[in-house]
Amino acid sequence: MAPAQDAVDRDAYAREHVRFLVLQLDQWSKEFPQQFYAAAMKPPVDANKLSASAKASAGELGDSIHRMASLAGAKDILTNAEFRNQLD
Length: 88
What we know:
Helix content is 66%, strand content 0%. By secondary structure, the protein is mainly α.
């Protein structure tokens, strides 16, 4: 049997992996709204024909990801209700 210090802490690994993924997503999302809006202005997409909710969706996605990234530092990230709600 392996000594306790050599045992893998699955919860710690899972927390760090979730934090890593959320931070990666947060970094990507900072550029996404600008890329989305730039693409919406190029043919064949006519931004004037997009609904207001469609036009706002890129920014809303970025805001949601940023809120999730701010919660990623919680020690209880795997069970944190606010983080899970934001993820949903």
